[in-house]
Design brief:
With about 300 residues, the protein is α/β, with parallel strands linked by helices. It has helices at about 45-55, 70-80, 125-130, 150-160, 195-205, 210-220, 255-270, 275-290, 300-310, and strands at about 5-10, 15-20, 35-40, 60, 65, 90, 100-105, 110, 135-140, 165-170, 190-195, 225, 235, 240-245. The chain has an eight-stranded mixed sheet, with helices on both faces. A four-stranded mixed sheet has the order 3-2-7-8. Strands 5-6 form a two-stranded parallel sheet. Helix 4 links the parallel strand 9 and strand 10. It starts with 6 loop residues before the first strand and ends with a helix.
Length: about 300
């Protein structure tokens, strides 16, 4: 590796085609209009790695890209942010996934995936390449490559045996459906899990954050963070529980906000911050992300986040 990363992000890498202000009324037999259309690199692992590098953490990424223009775009963006890309896997047997995102005026969005999002590379074959880090983030538990219980178990077990901090973000299943029970052997290796509210409802069957957290804790996960979007976040572990309000900010595009949140949380934990302080910082990272279109546009550096927190 060019650097020795403290943090390695693992998971999906892709390009987002972001369509803002889509007008469903056609202007011709086959034509529609939108306020804007932009291309942005994305995928949970990419978003988190770029945010963490901007925040001053030595960061690497383990992901898979095709030998195509979309893959070149992702690799270039990672390099510009200072992310170590020596673990990036590239091949001609699959295309780099491209996601179409429809973003509403309030920043909420819906996405369209395709078959290339199924591509499941094998991070468990590279255990010796990431266990020298201090922490890993699984960018998308329940999505490829972390939609295979044996892959998840191998990666998490190796990470914890090496003494790493393990943070697992989540996604709703798409091509392969798993439940918490399917991962019951692996989940005790997770230090922090960070589902959003919809994901937490789906996996736990509960509607209140404290109830959701209790279900995750019952599987042996050490710390649970429920991302509540415009309502802030909720934290619970065996000894404490608290809710934090959202940042007072006007959202433009929520794409990648959760990923920036997770990156901020992990970076501050690596700096030795207590959970509440790390989550305050994470809240600010997520809020900053929503002030511009694209997952990696608005966040610049750690000082920007500290200044936001000082202004409160």
């Amino acid at each position: 590796m060019g650097i020795q990363p403290d943090l390695i992000c693992m998971g999906m890498a892709l390009v987002d085609s972001i369509i803002k202000g889509f007008d469903p009324e056609p202007i011709s037999a086959s034509g529609y209009r939108a306020a804007s259309s932009t291309l942005s690199v994305g995928g949970e692992a990419v978003n988190e790695a770029m945010a963490a590098a901007k925040l001053g953490t030595k960061t690497g990424i383990l992901c898979a890209l095709g030998e195509d223009a979309a893959g070149d775009m992702v690799l270039s963006a990672l390099s510009r942010c200072g992310v170590d890309t020596s673990l990036v896997l590239r091949g001609e047997d699959h295309a780099t996934p491209v996601t179409t995102m429809f973003v509403k005026d309030d920043g909420t969005r819906k996405s369209i995936t395709n078959g290339s999002h199924r591509y499941n590379f094998h991070p468990e074959r590279y255990l010796d390449r990431f266990t020298s880090a201090r922490a890993i983030i699984l960018g998308s538990l329940f999505r490829a490559p972390f939609d295979d219980p044996q892959i998840i178990l191998a990666v998490l077990k190796a990470a914890k045996e090496a003494g790493l901090l393990v943070v697992a973000d989540t996604k709703l299943p798409n091509f392969r459906v798993l439940s918490l029970d399917d991962l019951k052997e692996a989940l005790p290796y997770v230090d922090y899990i960070t589902p959003n509210e919809d994901e937490a409802k789906y996996f736990t069957g509960k509607t209140e954050p404290f109830e959701m957290a209790d279900v995750f804790l019952s599987y042996g996960i050490k710390n649970v963070v429920i991302k509540l979007g415009s309502k802030g976040c909720y934290f619970k572990n065996a000894s404490e529980a608290f809710a934090l309000p959202p940042m007072p900010i006007k959202a433009v595009d929520a794409t990648g906000a959760g990923d920036n949140f997770v990156a901020g949380l992990t970076c501050e934990l690596l700096r030795g911050a207590a959970p509440k302080d790390a989550l305050l910082f994470a809240n600010a990272c997520g809020a900053i992300c929503t002030t511009a279109v694209g997952a990696s546009t608005a966040l610049k550096d750690r000082q920007q986040v500290l200044e936001m927190l000082k202004s409160l």
